[in-house]
Give the backbone structure.
Amino acid sequence: VDGFYQVSAQAINIDLPNISSVQVLKGPQGTLYGRNATGGAILLNTITPGERWEGYGFSIRATFSDHGESAPEAVGYLIESGGIAIWNAGDTGPSNEALLASLDGARVDVMIAPINGVLGNMNGQETCELAAAVRPRLLIGAHFGMFAPYGGDPAVFLKAAQDLPAVIEATLMAPGEVLRFSRAQGVLSRETLRRPDLGPQA
């Protein structure tokens, strides 16, 4: 991972949500990676804050995310396409100064941030405070209700959002919901995708 040889498969049994590239090298690779690489090697490279990927009409830049000591490699993503900039702050605590610095003055149209307030994440009030500084057109509270003890309270987020500047629309989304957004008009429509009928289950 990132140029460091991992002795066993257990060493890389970790979440790596910030993969930049994966290379599969057909074996044997003993000359480069030692005698235990007889079957080949898998090289994983992660993206770090400030790095950018561009292609297929998208630009994706990794931004700082503070998920504490348990995930020092955590990043957020600023995604730009078709003139719209979407910032997924990632799993992060309220390190507003560092979060804002990593945006480097970029315009944000849609901001997605956690509101559950546990395990190093911001709560609804903290997410709204950050949004007041970022000033997105649309703020989506995320990462709530996923696990019973770590659910967060969407009502706290929605109440705090009432104090945001009028130009910021705050909302929550349900699983399977599709939201259509225009920079000029804001939210255009919302709908929930239905799972296709698969017939009787065996």
